Amino acid sequence: MPLDPKVLGEALDEDLTLHTTLCRRDAPAFQRACRSSEDLVVACTQEARLFTELSEQTEGAVSLDVRPIHFVNIRETGGWGREAAKAMPKIAALLAAARLPDAEPVPTVTYKSTGRLLVIGELDQAERAAGMVADVLEVSLMATGGAGMQDRRYPVIAAQAPQVRGWLGAFDVSWTTGNPIDLDLCTRCNACVAACPEGAIGLDYQVDLNRCKSHRACVAACEAVGAINFQREPRDHSERFDLVLDLRRDPAFSQHAHPQGYFHLPHGLSDAKAIDAMLKVRELVGEFEKPKFFNYKQKVCAHGRNETVGCNACVEVCSALAISSDLKRNQIVVNPNLCVGCGACTTVCPTGAISYAYPRASEQGVKLRTLLATFQRAGGKDAALLLHSQEAGAALVGDLGRAASLDKSVRGVPARVIPLPLWHTASVGLDVWLTAFAYGASQVWVLMTGEEAPQYRAAVREQMAVAQAIVTGMGYAGQHFKLIEARDANDLPALDAALGEAPAQGVKRRASFAVQAEKRATLELALDHLLQDSTTQARTSDAIALPKVSLLGTINVNKDTCTLCLSCVSACPASALQDNTERPQLRFIEKNCVQCGLCATTCPENAITLQPRLLLSEQRKQLRVLNEAQPYQCIRCSKPFGTLKGIEVMLSKLSGHAMFQGEALERLKMCGDCRVVDIYSNPGEARITDL
pTM (2 decimals)? Predict the structure, then answer.
């Protein structure tokens, strides 16, 4: 592939030497680099294992624990393809991003497994699976039919309606036993099988009660052992296992992302995925850790207030069912053991109450800025950022690059398209996309490969519609955000065509702000930059209408029905709604509104409606009055204590009640202090001492 060390060196501020066979004849150059304490980046992922071993065997080399080697693929991502000669800016950007430090460590979630495996399925298939792992795992079988072998090698459970809950190291399995044959007593002598005239007993040694005609010949045949009893009452059982291998057609878990430690092979051991699954099962003995992928701040969560549900986006989008509602405490609860780190919850969260922790938003921002700044410094134009998963997505990008090296009709990854692997493509959303656009990316594309849950694709499309509406409303021409779907090699022609799309209009001046830890702060910085950069002449109005599912917008208050009870103020989690201690007013800061709907849900008069939009004027950041009313003055001391409209509504509703007649009704027109004084000074009032 064509490489220009001079262009790359200038972009990276380094003196670079071009090697053609670094893993073979030029290996001494790599060994010399291993002895240096400076950052070491190897632009080859194919020979990562070889380079790692060579570093460990090099005398005087810096330990990999002290100075790790960073590997980056510049071949399939740019060096192989029709535009390889123009790809130096992109290659420089990939090299610059590769030498960034690893993400800072975060708290971890620990799993402990002693290797207790439960295999659920037909007995013959379950025994085959057990034979593959029994040398390293303690296996139990839960039979759902089939024919078993004569040897009793594994404990067999005959279960009705088994239920599985939990995760790696902590699967709680419950089931009911109600079959006449007790497998713990059964000796597998087959006498009952031979004696049954209906053939209702199979080699799973269970009675098919639908076929059994109650001849009870099997009971007589089993008299010496006593394993068959038709009077046996059903019993409930439960047991804990570390791993579950499920060979049934329907999985035990309904969610898209199954818990760690649970493997579902609906096609049995003939499935192409069976070998990989069995190899993984064998390795799951010991103690395992994963990052705690999320941070949660209950104070700004818009899920609920006063046991009223507002935003429910994270609960609905989670494909692992790791997030649940806890309205009594006005919050959500995330089970870190079930969380798979997809980050979709952080993408749809309007307030940033739940945020992605590994990598942190600030670390992701540094990588974006490094990529795009280096690309531009090396002479690149109209960068398109391609976000993809680091496994299936990276494999597709690699396949496309290899296809381009063999078939001249395939473009490959264009020179302006910069692939960026993520842990999961749903882990970044509106704030990151707009930040990348502000940093100089003319387009941001997300590649999904079919491994993502359907609700993830829907959530990404919805947020892309919001992002596109914003930049279009600000006057930037073209399509800037796009979801690309490709599953396997059959989709490579479509992927090749999609990556060849023409550039869209980008910013005139690249942003320099840093991505903040708070989602809304980053979003505001990006919007402010785009507002300053965009052309005022291209704007059609002072507000951009946004799709219904939006993180930005205003609220409309029906002044005819609003009584200024201010219940919406206490419900608002983002301080967008505020009162005025000096006079009856409902005030609003549009910049803070997250469109969660808690105010509309809480309002007893149904006087509030949401309006998704982006206000382009400075009024968006300023307090404005949505409704105000004439204060109602106490009839005794003249102190204002409520709104005229609110008191009048209360009086009209209570005037017909037996407890609010005469003086009691008049007392409602007094402030709290005067009401107490009137009760104690009124000679007509009953007192406890009079009783």
Answer: 0.87
